[in-house]
Amino acid sequence: MTSITTRQTTRSTGLQPAIVLKNICIDRSGSMTSFGGQQYAMTEELLLDSWKQARESNIPTQITLKTFDDRVETLLNKINPNTQNTPSLQIIRENLHPRGSTRLNDTILNSLIQLEEDKDIYLNSLSNEVRGLNPTIVQILVVITDGHDNYSNSSKDYVKDKILEFREQGGEAILMAANMDAQVIGSEYGFNIEQCLTVHNSDQEAIQSGFRSLGTVVRGSSLGIPTSFTQTQRVLSQNISQTTPVNLLPMPTLTRQTATPSSPTSILQTPRPTYQTAYADLI
Fold this sequence. Notes:
This protein is an alpha/beta fold. It has helices at residues 38-57, 89-96, 104-124, 128-131, 156-168, 182-189, 204-222, 231-236, 256-259, 264-269, 276-279; strands spanning 19-27, 61-68, 72-79, 137-145, 172-177, 196-198.
């Protein structure tokens, strides 16, 4: 893999981030039924991983979680993992239950606008002296989808311009997609293809590997280190018995543990505070 070029605007190389702004967008259109419900537990795991990292690193973090079909809805809005908890699996299940069309373009634009506003709010909260030090502000857009847009008002070309602008300003845009080649569609939208992952949407192990690989890439980017999907992660996120890309052969014998450096089991075994009380404050 070639290295990802890091743009320098509000990010300073080699410094711990001053703040991490993370916006996660998850498709819940009708075609997501093909995931067989795997997206519920894996979304919970992705959130638990983000919470765990924020609490262990003590890096100020704001996490927003959006779901979309023909509407864009915000489940979590700029949540601080150090003061509030993740939603329960039941709440995730209810909000990600497949329905409706795919408002992909408008959802991405909505998230890019929010990330830019949140960055400005943070910068304006700093003194002129601190702002002059060019603090590292990490902005991460995560998009999980299984279909092409069929409901947005905005065009793909317009979204591409905005994603390229976001990346030029130092933002990280990460895509995980099913029912399509994520690197091809990601390139059409302006994503860096090294941060685009194709997942087999009806193979349970492939879905689990895809989400866990996504968590690894998001984890690295949250530390201000742009992270690519590895070749191993790409293989394990697809049903190899049906689709074996020629350019990935020959491959050594691998185990799932090798492909996931940070074991999700340790995340799920972490004592988890009761969410029901805290969730009332979020809605």
